[in-house]
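INFO  loader      accepted 1 record
INFO  loader      residues=206
INFO  predictor   begin
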Amino acid sequence: MTAIGTATGRRGRPGHSLDSLLRTAVALFNERGYDATSMDELAVRLGVTKSAIYHHVPSKVELLRLALDRALDALFAVTEEPGAIAGPAIDRLEHVVRGSVRVLAAELPFVTLLLRVRGNSAVEQAALERRRRFDRIVTDLVRAAEGEGDVRPDVDPAVTSRLLFGTVNSLTEWYRPDGGLSADDLADAVVTTAFAGLRTRPAAGP
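INFO  predictor   done
INFO  writer      dumping tokens
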């Protein structure tokens, strides 16, 4: 099966692209839960027959895999950007946090689905393992920033990482792209709030 990024241009019967199929499926998974959603219900929501869906994907589990990979691929792409690779660790950490907020805003339904995964299938377990790999990247950045003297040393790096992304992940509960707050403004707010308490401060004068 081709990756979502190269498959979104495919067109099938009766005019639904894989991307539109995937977006509808994710919306339904988030509404009803993945296990409670049937292919019949998805076909009704799309206004097509099940055979039209199977033109694009062989199964419901493949829709889940594509959806989870879409969110995870976007998050890992942030860690490969120049701002996440070069420079002081604290700046790279800030870049990853800011970029993750932008991913959440751009791919909100997909990230929401990812955060609800509990490891009930091989696909979900693979997604959880990728999430753990992402968490380790962030924790390593926190640890490096602490070693460089830019992050307060009195909080364990793993705890700092969880607190940072606990804040980011909580945005799925209330953020709406059409609510008047842009992704950049949202990222600025998260970074300003989180890093004000994270960065070390210069010693006070006499």
